[in-house]
Amino acid sequence: MIGYVTLGTNDLAQAARFYDAIAAEMGVGRMMEFDSFIAWGTWDGGAGIAATKPFDGKEATVGNGTMVAIEANDTAQVHRLYDIAMAHGGSDEGAPGPRGEPDPNGKVFYAGYFRDPDGNKLNAFCMADA
């Protein structure tokens, strides 16, 4: 249902370095690029992510309670995405690990939380064996 998510940035070049690295781990690249906007993903794939300078010309700010979740293939990829975020100007919001109790099928929500250089909150997650 979601086509893409857009996050505001005050430094598009810095956001580009951060999301280029995240996108590369996910096996995608830039699919659209303008002077004030870059989107990553594939035209025929799942939801993409974009970084943009706000259209109204004002400073980009972080939404309180807003978070973008990136679905990883497995727990190893959760760790790689978290590490990539830390290496590219991100900040820690919760190291990778299981969250909550296993579901009836023995699966547990496994996630690592981080912020991009502009302060937008993201996580990398998967459902893992408990």
Give a written overview of the molecule.
Helix content is 22%, strand content 40%. With 130 residues, the chain is of the alpha/beta class. Strand 3 (37-41) and strand 4 (48-52) form a beta hairpin. Helix 1 (12-26) packs antiparallel against helix 2 (75-87). The longest helix is centred in the N-terminal third of the chain and has 15 residues, at 12-26. The two termini are 29 Å apart. The mean pLDDT is 96. Residues 1-127 form the VOC domain. Pfam families: Glyoxalase (PF00903). This is VOC family protein. InterPro entries: Glyas_Bleomycin-R_OHBP_Dase (IPR029068), Glyas_Fos-R_dOase_dom (IPR004360), VOC_core (IPR037523).
Distance between the termini: 29 Å
Strand elements, count: 8
| Number of helical stretches of at least 4 residues | 2
Which whole number gives the mean pLDDT? Answer: 96
What is the succession of H and E elements?
EHEEEEHEEE
In percent, how helical is the residue content?
Answer: 10-25%
Write out the strand line-up for the largest beta sheet, numbering strands in chain order: 1-4-3-2
Low-confidence stretches: none
Q: What does the main sheet amount to?
A: 4 strands, mixed
Please report which band the strand proportion falls in: under 5%, 5-15%, 15-25%, 25-35%, 35-45% or over 45%: 35-45%
Shape descriptor = globular
